[in-house]
Design goal:
heterodimer, A: 281 residues, mainly beta, 12-stranded mixed β-sheet, 4-stranded antiparallel β-sheet, B: mainly beta, Immunoglobulin-like, 3-stranded antiparallel β-sheet, 42% strand
């Protein structure tokens, strides 16, 4: 017979174990979301900056003020690159996840920012996030690449970020059923066998409502499918399948050893978002 | 906007067999000038591509060519007009002046 205090203790441990189990099955991902990656013609591009778990969105985390937020654009392969700072367009909001609310940001830069044809690579360097469960900070340098009008630009060029996932395929032009390839880099060099996590953005962000859609698009058959954990090859290259339309996040973990923030370990991660489209008439 | 998209869609259909699709888009600078940008779907430059601004009867109002930067700026006509981008091999992109936004 279990005494009452022991029963409570067992229940508490069970809750803790379940929490640990779930936290290990899903990954933190910095979202840099816009609904459409391949625009027919120029228009204003709304953005949502949310730190969450894209597959389940059970827990959304507070973001501090970003350190950097800008877009690098290029019209045509030979044209000069242009960098436009976007910090002035950041608007702090409370974002609702499926279970929690958290501090996040939206941005509505005017059409003039994306008025030209070409590629636009949005870059976000968020404030380091303290992850109490691991007693360390996480900072995810995040890129989202969109295109206006079908005229490509610098989508395949590294931007000189300290850690970066450099695309080998256009992140905005992918059919469902295809594959996407990229190279994980740190300090401009490929990172052999980098630890990489993949998640599907299962709950569509609704920017105007400042929340995720409470209905997910798919269900994972088992926890291994929530975050797909893979390794880059010996050349730092990753290749992922795209079995479902929508956004896929690629996150390469802890790419710069020995970094600290406020006396704690800092995991400097690189995130790239890729959008896949259904083949329809 | 719908007209512009229709024009672009028609062009895409017409040139679907070509690897490099010509692309052109225009915006109103808000100072009585309009800038058109061009290029090709492989990232190629539109430098030197002929540009024509015609009225609704087809009369040529302005003629020129895309600059080294693959753009072409012209004074906004006082009448309804069409922008024509000579994309090559008989494929002309037409953009209705009424669809050009700031």
């Amino acid at each position: 017979m279990i005494r009452r205090d022991s029963a409570m203790s067992v229940r508490r441990w069970a809750v803790l174990l379940v929490a640990m189990f779930f936290s290990s099955a899903e990954a933190h991902f910095q979202l840099l979301y816009t609904p459409e990656a391949a625009l027919q013609s120029s228009s204003a591009v709304p953005l949502a900056l949310v730190f969450s778990h894209p597959f389940n969105n059970g827990y959304t985390m507070d973001m501090g003020a970003p350190e950097e937020f800008y877009v690098v654009s290029q019209r045509g392969a030979e044209a000069p690159r242009r960098t436009t700072d976007l910090m002035e367009f950041l608007e702090p909001v409370t974002w609702s996840g499926v279970e929690t609310q958290a501090a996040a940001f939206i941005a509505n830069p005017p059409r003039r920012v994306t008025r030209s044809l070409g590629d636009y690579t949005y870059v976000l360097r968020p404030a380091p996030y303290y992850e109490a469960g691991e007693d360390k900070y996480i900072q995810q340098v995040t890129k989202t690449v969109i295109n206006v009008g079908g005229l490509p630009g610098a989508w395949d060029e590294p931007l000189g970020l300290p850690v970066e996932i450099v695309p080998l395929d256009k992140p905005y032009a992918n059919w469902v059923g295809g594959v996407f390839r990229a190279v994980v880099t740190a300090g401009g060099q490929p990172v052999p066998h980098a630890e990489v996590e993949i998640e599907y953005l299962n709950h569509e962000p609704q920017i105007d409502a400042r929340r995720f859609d409470s209905d997910g698009k798919v269900t994972a058959p088992q926890d291994s499918f929530i975050t797909l954990s893979i390794r880059a090859d010996a050349n730092g290259q990753v290749m992922i399948g795209l079995p479902k339309a929508g956004w896929w996040g690629i996150c390469a973990l802890d790419l710069d050893d020995g970094l600290e923030h406020d006396g704690k370990e800092l995991s400097l991660d690189a995130v790239l978002w890729v959008q896949a489209k259904d083949m329809v008439r | 906007m719908v007209r512009t998209l229709s024009a672009m869609t028609l062009l895409f259909l017409a040139s679907a067999a070509h690897a490099h699709t010509p692309i052109c888009d225009c915006y109103d600078n808000g100072d009585d000038t309009i800038t058109c940008e061009g290029g090709f779907s492989d990232g190629g430059t539109a430098q030197g591509i002929p540009m024509r601004i015609v009225d609704t009867s087809g009369r040529v109002l302005i003629e020129g060519a895309m600059s080294d930067n693959s753009d072409f700026t012209f004074a906004k006509p006082n009448v309804d007009f069409l922008v024509e981008f000579e994309g090559g091999e008989g494929h002309v992109i037409q953009i209705d002046g009424r669809d050009i936004e700031e």
